[in-house]
Write a structure and sequence with these properties.
- By secondary structure, the protein is an alpha+beta fold.
- It has three domains: 20-41 and 547-656, Immunoglobulin-like, CATH 2.60.40.1180; 48-63 and 215-542, TIM Barrel, CATH 3.20.20.80; 80-211, Galactose-binding domain-like (Jelly Rolls).
- The strands form seven sheets. The chain has an eight-stranded parallel sheet with strand order 3-15-18-19-20-21-22-23. A seven-stranded antiparallel sheet has the order 2-27-30-31-36-33-34, with helices on one face.
- α4 crosses α5 and α9 (479-494) runs parallel beside α10 (532-542).
- The chain is globular and about 90 Å long.
- This is non-reducing end alpha-L-arabinofuranosidase.
């Protein structure tokens, strides 16, 4: 039985100079013909799904350290506290003049003596690193007779000052004032203190603190270590911004891309739909500032070499929440948003939205090739709205591929209805989701073997093995889940003529502020680590090749016989043969690979292995590489490649042509 027991066996990978005939007496022979191409692998095959869940954006990828910087939470002062008795803070409502940023604060210092401070707690604290610089800024104005000075401090968990500077925000009209701090020590949960000196009155908004060292050192940019983990995967695409936040709990809190570009103080904040979704992980301070907006998503895609895949609301709020609908006759603004987004990405300077993109600092086109209409929607209401979007988009942009939802599950009534309807309607790409037990993934490696080769392409848009149950807070990113995903992915790759894209989900999780688990990459305020699942995804992405070739056992694809899953591909760009071999059993496995034309390859192969004898093993902040790739070289002796691999292992074998 698969996944029974664990044996403590050291890594053993060897090549023996045996003939296949001799080996057949004791082992299995897998045949590979690198010249017989069965499917082309799309460059987009393995990518990234991003959603602002688990504080993945604010408090995560977006490097802003101040929570509720513009006082737009339901409680306008949430995240802020005051200290000292000679000051008063009032929230000022200016919604009649600034609907996009309706709140500012007024700080009234009543005496020249004494002390008064405004304190921000950050996103479960602020991660500060010794020697690093931090940029503080604020939009402010003072009353004409006001003489208030600011002292800006970072204090560690014990209250010790670890960075300080002064700022004099002069002026009676709104202006941005900035200062730099340099940390003298590190802290994982620091706080920002703004102390006021001198009698007077100051209005303040957009109080901000960013590390100077961001991704590509962009001002107000992204957290460098998190982006680096994405770049290291060399993903084929980046899907954004979700996920259920595309829909919103109701339509007024849906994601609207046009409100996420331009000056950050004009980006209208909304509550995050994961704020109160799970009773076991209520997060009342979870909002979206949209500092990470569509322009940033497009630039991130470009930075990491990924095709952008934006998903837009189709006039339906989340069907697990309000299920609010826009009437069919009132869909024009939603459809226009889709058309304008394509123009924003691809339009020239003569177009309205292409011109805006250039004005925002990116004159070159983003070359958008695909667009999602709706996220995890289902039922006849979705089909009706999709038809309207499809007609309008294809009429103006016939080459743009539309990604289409097949609902929440990989089977059942919702899936069957949508799968049948959209195939009949000639959909480009069908988005299938599966959050299931590890056993389901091992049992579904043949899922796409009998799919229509002439039908829509498949996007495995959200998947992750659930160690306990769907959405359980006890789910773990353990080795059994990751190994089962590796086994399942052999089926995705073997059927690359049907499956064009795949992405694990969710992507990020803050260790102190998550709502959903498992997740691909975990982080705190200073550090991050990749899970075993991350390394599985990374190995597939880095070793996908360009074309599938047959890897057979007894003339059959290797889809779980004796607990083994395998696939092979060639890379025409690098002249390599890539073998992926997954052993889900508790025993050593020795396999002979009868590679046609083996003599054409160099005598040394590269072996990369993920392995643990413990199926419940996990990585963590304290031990980030309990399970991580181990690379070795393998000398090929004789006419055949014979490899012995450990129990519970995922191995990539790379042979390079001479």
């Amino acid at each position: 039985m698969i996944f029974k027991g664990t044996k403590k066996i050291g890594l053993l990978i060897s090549a023996l100079g045996l003939s296949v005939t001799a080996f057949c007496q004791t082992g299995k022979v897998y045949t590979i013909d690198p010249a017989q191409i069965t499917a082309h692998i799309q460059p987009t095959m393995y990518g990234i799904f991003f959603e602002d869940i688990n504080m993945g954006a604010d408090g995560g990828l977006y490097a802003e350290l101040v929570k509720n910087r513009s006082f737009e939470f339901g409680d306008a002062l949430q995240g802020w506290k005051t200290e000292g008795g000679n000051g008063i803070v009032k929230v000022v409502d200016r919604s009649s003049e600034r609907a996009d940023n309706p709140h500012v604060i007024n700080v009234d210092i009543t005496s020249n003596s004494g002390a008064f401070s405004l304190i921000n707690e950050g996103f479960r604290g602020m991660g500060i690193k010794k020697g690093e610089g931090y940029n503080f800024s604020v939009l402010s104005k003072q009353a004409a007779d006001s003489k208030v000075k600011l002292t800006i401090e970072l204090r560690d968990e014990a209250g010790k000052v670890i960075a300080t500077t002064d700022l004099l925000p002069n002026g009676t009209t709104w202006a941005k004032h900035s200062a730099k701090l340099v940390a003298t020590a590190s802290a994982n949960k620091a706080k920002l203190y703004i102390s006021f000196k001198g009698k007077g009155s100051v209005d303040m908004d957009m109080i901000s603190l960013f590390p100077q060292h961001t991704w590509k050192n962009r001002a107000n940019g992204l957290r460098a270590d998190l982006v680096q983990k994405l770049a290291d995967m060399k993903p084929g695409f980046l899907r954004f911004p979700g996920g259920c936040i595309v829909e919103g709990r109701e339509l007024k809190t849906r994601y609207q891309w046009k409100k996420t570009i331009g000056d950050i103080d004009t980006r209208e904040n909304v509550i995050n739909r994961w704020n109160t979704e799970f009773k076991h992980r209520l997060t009342p301070d979870y909002y979206q500032s949209f500092g990470l907006g569509f322009m940033e998503y497009f630039m991130l895609s470009e930075d990491i070499g990924a095709e952008p895949l934006p998903i837009l609301n189709c006039g339906m709020a989340c069907q697990f929440n309000s299920g609010e609908l826009t009437e069919l006759g009132q869909l024009d603004p939603y459809v226009q948003d889709a058309l304008d987004l394509i123009e924003f990405a691809n339009g020239g300077p003569e177009t309205e939205w292409g011109k805006l993109r250039a004005q925002l600092g990116h004159p070159a086109k983003f070359n958008l090739k695909m667009l999602g209409v709706g996220n995890e929607n289902w039922g006849p209401n979705y089909i009706d709205r999709w038809k309207i979007f499809h007609k309008a988009i294809k009429a103006k942009y016939p080459d743009v591929k539309i990604v289409t939802s097949t609902g929440t599950d990989p089977d059942g009534a919702r899936f069957d209805t949508l799968n049948t309807a959209f195939r009949a309607l000639g959909a480009d790409i069908l988005d299938e989701h599966y959050y299931r037990a590890p056993k389901w993934f091992r049992g579904n490696a043949k899922r796409y073997d009998k799919y229509d080769r002439n039908g829509p392409k498949i996007f495995a848009g959200e998947y992750a093995a659930q160690s306990v149950a769907i959405a359980s807070p006890q789910n773990k990113n353990n080795w059994e889940c990751a190994l089962s995903e590796a086994a399942f992915m052999t089926g995705l790759e073997r059927n690359a003529d049907v499956v064009a894209m795949a992405s694990y989900a969710p992507l990020f999780a803050h260790v102190d502020a998550w709502q959903w688990t498992p997740d691909l990459i975990w982080f705190d305020n200073e550090h991050s680590y990749g899970t075993p699942n991350y390394y599985v995804q990374k190995l597939y992405s880095l070793n996908k090749g360009t074309d599938v070739v047959p890897l057979l056992l007894n003339d059959e694809a290797v889809t779980g016989q004796n607990g083994i899953f395998a696939t092979a591909s060639i890379d025409k760009k690098t002249n390599e043969l890539l073998i992926k071999f997954v052993n889900t059993t508790d025993a050593k496995q020795t396999a002979a690979f009868d590679v046609k034309g083996l003599a054409k390859y160099q005598p040394t192969a590269t072996i990369t292995t993920l392995q643990s004898n413990k199926l419940d093993a996990e990585n963590s902040l304290a031990n980030p590489v309990v399970i991580a790739p181990v690379v070795s070289q393998l000398k090929i002796a004789g006419k055949n490649l014979i490899v012995t691999v450990e129990p519970y292992s995922f191995t990539v074998i790379k042979l390079k042509a001479k």
